[in-house]
Design goal:
Layout: H1 2-24, H2 27-32, H3 39-60, H4 71-90, H5 99-120
Helix pairs in contact: 1-3, 1-5, 3-4, 4-5
């Protein structure tokens, strides 16, 4: 099961990179009010949700020895990931997308990255 968990962690990181990268690649357009929801934002957010839920399930079930979950952090990260996906999904056809929506998506993504990085170190 360790191999499955490792693959899921890699996919989770790819989803994060895809999501954050899709935001950062158009940051100049966002600042000008001409940004939009790129496919990478939707796909990255969905990949993060799916892999995150699977990882929590594997770790909570005790299938990987020595791994535990911090339920408070997991809950916060889940709410943030859902908010990112819902915002992206609801605004996917609006061109240009309101800059505030894209800044919120970028900010929430950064918060999730920080939570993920700091909660692993505990």
């Amino acid at each position: 099961m360790q191999i499955v968990a490792t693959i899921l962690v890699i996919l989770h990181l790819i989803g994060m990179a895809y999501l954050l990268g899709a935001f950062l690649v158009q940051i100049k357009d966002v600042a000008k009010g001409q940004g939009r929801i790129l496919r990478g934002i939707l796909d990255g957010a969905l990949l993060q949700l799916i892999t995150g839920i699977l990882l929590v399930g594997i770790y909570s079930a005790g299938l990987v020895e020595g791994e535990k979950t911090n339920d408070a952090v997991v809950g916060i990260k889940l709410v943030i990931a859902l908010a990112i996906y819902v915002l992206a999904f609801l605004n996917r056809n609006k061109v240009p997308t309101k800059s505030v929506v894209l800044w919120i998506i970028g900010g929430l993504t950064l918060v999730n990255v920080i939570l993920g990085a700091t909660s692993v170190m505990q």
